[in-house]
Amino acid sequence: MSIPVPPWQQRAARERSARRPLSLDLIVRTALELLETDGLDAVSMRKVAQRLGTGAASLYAYVNNKDELHELMLDLVIGEISVPDPDPANWRQQIKDLINRQVEVLAAHPGIARVVLRTPAPTGPNALAVTEAMLSILRAAGLPDRAVAFAVDILALFATAAAMELSADFGLTDEQRDERISQVEQYFASLPEDRFPTLVSMLPVLSQGDYRERFDFGLDLLLNGLAAWKP
Amino acid sequence: MSIPVPPWQQRAARERSARRPLSLDLIVRTALELLETDGLDAVSMRKVAQRLGTGAASLYAYVNNKDELHELMLDLVIGEISVPDPDPANWRQQIKDLINRQVEVLAAHPGIARVVLRTPAPTGPNALAVTEAMLSILRAAGLPDRAVAFAVDILALFATAAAMELSADFGLTDEQRDERISQVEQYFASLPEDRFPTLVSMLPVLSQGDYRERFDFGLDLLLNGLAAWKP
DNA sequence: ACCTGAACACCGTTCAAGT
DNA sequence: ACCTGAACACCGTTCAAGT
After folding, report:
1. Residues B88/B138, Cβ–Cβ less than 8 Å
2. Band of the pLDDT at B52, cuts 50, 70, 90?
3. pLDDT at B92 exceeding the cut of 60
4. What is the 3-state secondary structure (H, E, C) of A191-213?
5. Cα A53–Cα A55–Cα A58 angle in degrees, nearest 5
6. Other C-beta atoms lying within 10 Å of the C-beta of residue B71
7. In this structure, what DSSP letter does residue A99 have?
8. Is residue A184 a contact partner of residue A190, using CB atoms and an 8 Å limit?
9. What CATH number is given for A82-227 in this structure?
């Protein structure tokens, strides 16, 4: 049995760090909280430190710089993707599920996709596991090695770009989003027909289909193209 | 005939702005100089203003905020893409050329591709011209309208993501780049075979092929997929 | 060894005050 | 009307000084 600390002895700002001492794990998880609610731009060394009741300088004992912190966050996010065992009869659906899930978890952490495009190759353990899964699914499907290697690259690029687009309007209220959409629509409707004849004539089709349909369309193009590589 | 200004009357920092007064055009072109040499992160309101011999506050008479300046820059960059008249027999090559050129000009202005992913739709006059061209080429090729509309979206996304990847290592010296590559290679060579069997066994293939081959592979997947939509 | 306050060199944007 | 210095509220990172 321990006697409780009197409230006037608790320094509010230090409470958390007094109970839970700093650690890499704590830092990254605190940063992820910030990411989910406020987006990547809000994940600054200073704001993360503030949440932990300390100063930004303290984080540098665990992390070399902000980019490294962002990369650690990314791998934890990628860790939310669960990977299946290859089922050759189902390779298309397996790849589709993996890519869709990847877009989903990236978009759920607004801005983190930027980190993917900044990093040369997936080096975190979770990113490696996803890459391993994609490679083995495509290989089990009977595609030539070269197509497998290139396809994994292209599919990852595609998923990342889609996630970036999805989180582009993060931070706007629903009203702001609606206003933006109607502004864009008005703008396009006002374009001169003689300079942009095809665009103007296609306006109804161009505004058709939400993100899902467009993304699925693109993914199917890629997968159809890939299937054609089967010997 | 005008008498030259004596050197001691020229205030160096103000020289440019004294001769050429501020204008939106001058601001955007100055920003583009900075972009080409130093990358998007260096294009700050303060640095652009400094180049013009003034303070950041002065730019706000011509531009609402930094994002708007970045968008104006983007459209000038897109303007470097020249658009062809549709040639139905050659639609595949025309699209390939357009997309390759787009990646080229975006990558030549390191970081500007980020602005594309941030903007909801292409609204600048030059971006509209490129969109009009892509739409008309695909339509003239005989693709259904819906496929045309979706394809333009997907192709633009693909080109933008590729350009982002290409400018990812901007700012590094050749030595730093080489060191990074060899570090990544060493890391991958050290991975445990039991956890990443496919990855490890495919290492030689994975490091095969440069950016061009991978990008062409992906573009061909998309175009093959598209061609299949022809009725 | 671990932590941190203060400092340095940057940001975007606003606004009162100048011409 | 056009321009701007100074201020405000932020950054990432370093480093000497503390325990």
Report:
1. no
2. very high
3. yes
4. CCCCCCHHHHHCHHHHCCCCHHH
5. 105
6. 19
7. H
8. no
9. 1.10.357.10
CB atoms within 10 A of CB A128: 20
Q: Report which DSSP code applies to A125.
A: H
B79 CA to C11 C1' distance (Å): 30
Contact B89, B140 (CB under 8 A): no
Least CA distance to B156: which residue of chain A?
A161
Is B77 exposed, middle or buried, given 0-12, 13-18 or 19+ CB atoms closer than 10 A?
buried
For B213, other C-beta atoms within 10 Å of its C-beta total: 12
Residue B120 CA to residue B34 CA, distance in Å, equals 25
Are the Cβ atoms of B206 and A117 closer than 8 angstroms? no
CA of A71 to C1' of C4 (A): 25
pLDDT digits (tens, 9 = 90+) for A39-91: 999 999 999 999 999 999 999 999 999 999 999 999 999 999 999 999 999 99
The length of chain B in residues reads 231
The two three-digit tokens of residue B194, written as one number: 């039991």
Scanning every strand, the nucleotide with its C1' closest to A57's CA turns out to be: C4
d(CA A229, CA B228): 15
pLDDT band at B176 (very low <50, low <70, confident <90, very high): confident
Selection from A160, A154, A127, A158 nearest residue A138 by Cα: A154
Distance CA B138, CA A198 (A): 10
Q: What is d(CA B215, CA B103) in angstroms, rounded to the nearest whole number?
A: 10
Supply the CATH classification number for the domain B10-63. 1.10.10.60
Domain boundaries defined on chain A: 10-63, 82-227
What pTM value is reported for the model? Answer: 0.90
**pLDDT-derived band at A20, boundaries 50, 70, 90:** low
Task: Please count the other Cβ atoms lying within 10 Å of the Cβ belonging to residue B184.
Answer: 15
User: Can you read off the two tokens belonging to residue A170?
Assistant: 């993060």
Picking from A31, A88, A43, A209, the residue whose alpha carbon sits closest to that of residue B153 is: A209
Question: What are the chain A neighbours of B117 within 8 Å (beta carbons)?
Answer: 161, 164-165, 168
Select from B61, A34, A165 the least CA-distant residue to B69: B61
DSSP-H helix ranges across chain B: 15-19, 24-38, 45-51, 66-78, 91-107, 113-118, 125-140, 145-166, 174-189, 197-201, 203-206, 211-227
Q: What is the largest CA-CA distance in chain B?
A: 83
